[in-house]
Amino acid sequence: MASSTLVINGSPRENGNTDSLLQQFIRGAESISAQTTYFNLRDLDIGDCIGCCTCRDESVCKLQDDMTRLRAEIERSDFLVLASPNYWCGITGLMKTFMDRLYFYHHPVNSARIADKKAVVLSTMGESTNIEYESALLVEFFERALRSLGIEIRDILLFPGLMEKEDVLRKPEYLERVFSLGRSIGSVSRRK
After folding, report:
1. Domain limits at 137?
2. pLDDT of residue 169
3. What is the overall mean pLDDT for the chain?
4. What is this structure's pTM?
5. What is the pLDDT of residue 173?
6. pLDDT at 186
7. CA angle, corner 16, sides to 10 and 21, nearest 5?
8. β-bridge partners, 90
9. DSSP for 46-78?
10. I need a labelling partner for 47 at 20 to 30 A (CA). Which of 72, 102, 118, 190 fits?
11. Which residues pair with 5 in a beta bridge?
12. Could you tell me the CATH number of the domain that includes residue 153?
């Protein structure tokens, strides 16, 4: 069975820097015929977790929305690419809602569905100085959340100096970096 990559965009800004980076990532993957599936969280109806713990206790989610379809895609995919701009030292509200709903995988039956998944995290940020400090909460959040789900983080890539909508177009090194990442993840997927 061919492996695949699921790309999740947590940016609320349409046609912004995160969108451009992810489009370039997909171009890289598709340049070697790798299978990718792409979702913009801003286009989906994903409700807030209501904390009922039905998923943890009974392995089902009470909320029936687009997260049901996304979970199916997560389970089908081998690699996850999670992208969120760094907003106020952390992820966007869209990405936080999505990540909260991954609590579903804390039920033993559900956790087996995502065993051995791999992830790469991409984050754009307006900051150009103190990058490590400014991104520390975002990095720690993804590391802790994904580790608790048993997902191996292959890399966390930060793209500083991208405040205005088209700033990434003036950073060809960023675009090349994600294009190469798409090719490298795609080539690993194709060898399985």
Report:
1. 4-191
2. 95
3. 93
4. 0.94
5. 98
6. 64
7. 75
8. 87
9. -PPP----HHHHHS--S--SHHHHHHHHHHH-S
10. 118
11. 36, 79
12. 3.40.50.360
